Amino acid sequence: MERAFGTAMATRSGKNNSSGNTPVQRQERRKLWRGVIVLAALLLLLVAIGFLLFWLNCQFFDRNARFTLNHITIESTGYWGQSAENRAELLRFMRLHPGSDNLFAIDPAKVREQIKSIPNVADATVERILPDTLQLRIEERVPRAFLGYSKSDFVVDANTMVMLSRQCFGVHPRLPVIVGLRDEVREGVMLPKLANALDLIMRIHRSFPEFQVVLASVSQPDRIFMILDYRGRKRYQVTLPAEQKPELLDVLRSAIEDALRNNDQRTNINLLFDGSVVMN
């Protein structure tokens, strides 16, 4: 009987051990629960600190009357800095309200993206100046050609961005005209089909001041037809390949100078034949 009792106690002890009720296991569970409680307390503390910082930010910044937006300075050498009316148009577009908006409630990054979404804006910077000023610096795109006809409502910059001519500063009436585009023209889109013609116009503008581009046609994808004035003395019709070779304009200039020296009255020049000059 003693043997049976001992066997029963050993079995019960084994069950207790297997169920995790040993002193060591109980101590480990207590440590685990203490860790969970400490972690939960830290999380609650962090949440409380977050709410406190948010409340302090609202009280001292976002809702502080001392930081009410009272002044917006716009620095631009183009359309948006040209007049008080244009500056007011920009503020309406951005939905900024001097006298009521809080300076710290305005996100400079979002305002910058808003400004850059305007077609005639190339880049912008936005800065807060304490206590009540928002400073905008705007770099505007430069119009390089009319689209369709002279004095068109649409102009394009060197990167093929279409803009309203009325929103561009310094639109010269003698800007080149690009014709032959079959796509619908609208503000705020880029037209890669114009890239070759604009590259040519810009190269002439920078390096060949004796030429004045009057018109460029992009109606045929493999070539560009241009009307050029040479030193204000004579007008020429020139056909060039769409993919430009750097030396072609040098060849063109030399051909025109030779023709003028020889009193050659021909004004049609074709440069499609691998750099050869064909005049008629």
Task: Give a description of the structure.
- The protein has six helices and twelve strands.
- The protein is of the alpha/beta class.
- The chain has three domains: 21-63; 67-140, Roll (Ubiquitin-like (UB roll)); 145-279, Rossmann fold (3-Layer(aba) Sandwich).
- The strands form two sheets. It has a nine-stranded mixed β-sheet with strand order 6-5-4-7-8-9-10-11-12, with helices on one face.
- A hairpin with a 5-residue loop joins strand 5 (154-156) and strand 6 (162-164).
- It starts with a helix and ends with a strand.
- 19% of the residues are buried.
The largest β sheet comes out as: 9 strands, mixed
Provide the domain count.
3
* Count of individual helical segments: 6
Percentage of residues in strands: 15-25%
Q: Low-confidence spans: pLDDT under 50, at least 5 residues?
A: none
Kindly report how far apart the N and C termini lie: 132 Å
CATH class category of the largest domain? Alpha Beta
Task: Give the strand tally.
Answer: 12
Which CATH architecture of the largest domain? 3-Layer(aba) Sandwich
Mean pLDDT: 88
Radius of gyration: 37 Å
The CATH topology of the largest domain is Rossmann fold
In short:
With 280 residues, the chain is an alpha/beta fold. It is built from 6 helices and 12 strands. The model has no long low-confidence stretch (mean pLDDT 88).
Features:
Ubiquitin-like (UB roll); Rossmann fold; 3 domains; 9-stranded mixed sheet; 3-stranded mixed sheet
Task: Detail the topology: elements first, then pairings.
Layout lengths: L1 H17 L4 H40 L8 E5 L8 H11 L13 H9 L4 E9 L3 E8 L4 E3 L6 E3 L5 E3 L12 E3 L15 H13 L3 E7 L5 E8 L3 E8 L6 H14 L6 E6 L2 E4 L1
Parallel strand pairs: 1-3, 4-7, 7-8, 10-11
Antiparallel strand pairs: 2-3, 4-5, 5-6, 8-9, 9-10, 11-12
